[in-house]
Amino acid sequence: MSKARCISEKRGEALTAFFISKDRICCLDTNREVIVSSFDGSNTKKWPIMKKNLGKIDKIFPAPLGKILIVSEDCLFMYDLSARKVLHEVTLTDIKRVYWTPNYCHVAVITKH
Predict the structure, then answer these.
(1) Nearest CA to 77 among 30, 109, 113?
(2) Which CATH topology does 6-111 take?
């Protein structure tokens, strides 16, 4: 699997976007909904993130195949895109960046402080 790149620019309707496979892209739109589509724009799926006590979603980051990391106000959680559920969760604040090892076994989370 190639290295996923995260783009964190506000252009149009997307707040954050990155490739989740060689021909699919995942975006977080201004309504805080996840959009997964093929690179050419066809086959688009859009849904809100469902989680109890979920505050405002700030960012999303790449994760292992079929998953994304979501940064909320006070937590970071791994979300399975196909099952549409939360797999793991940790309480953290002020998350700036996420770095994975090449095989996506370990992650380093960089915070503001």
Answers:
(1) 109
(2) Thrombin, subunit H (2.40.10)
